[in-house]
Amino acid sequence: MDSLETQLRALVLSSLDGDKPAYRQLLGELTHYLRIYFSRRLAPTHAAHVEDLIQETLLAVHTRRLTYDPDRPFTAWLHAIAHYKLVDHLRRHSIRATVPLDDDFADGSQPGSTMAAHDLDRVLATLPERTSTLIRKVKVEGSSVSEAASAHGMTEGAAKIAIHRGLKALMARFAGDRR
Any idea where the RNA polymerase sigma factor 70 region 4 type domain is (predicted)? Predict the structure, then answer.
């Protein structure tokens, strides 16, 4: 690894001084290095994205090359960029579990709505009473956040936070793995 660091560091320093052949060689070496880096970190289902990640990382290296500190290891700087590109890729391509909340839980107009209302009652019962009531008022009954907040003597911001945290807790508790 030390010889690779020395080689890449020499190439990047030469390229920063305007040596175009050194820059081309650096990009070629980085392409090979990043292909191995990303191939080892991506699941086989994402292997088709390796080349895209290489290109994104090379573009980031190109646009940020002036921020490289020559007193520090080049590969550490490169790994930081590659790591963030990988994290961004995984975030973009992940499937997040969602739980749909229908507007007609308890209106009784559809078959099974009684069971849905019962299920909703059981789910909301797992939350603190005030949070449960806020979610029911705003998300099920259609009240405004302002109305629900004033009914509980809260600020609108505090009500929004309580609703958000309650829904997040429900998601964590009941969503499961939906992949």
Answer: 119-170
More confident residue, 160 or 121: 160
- Helix, strand, coil % in the chain, rounded to nearest 5: 75, 0, 25
pLDDT digits (tens, 9 = 90+) for 152-172: 899 999 999 999 998 898 888
Domain boundary (34, 64, 93) is at 93
Q: How far is CA 69 from each of CA 15, 24, 145, 149, rounded to the nearest angstrom?
A: 14, 20, 50, 52
Total domains in the fold of the chain: 2
Where does a domain end: 93, 124, 155?
93
> CA 113 to CA 121: how far, in whole Å?
12
Q: Do 73 and 119 have their domain in common?
A: no
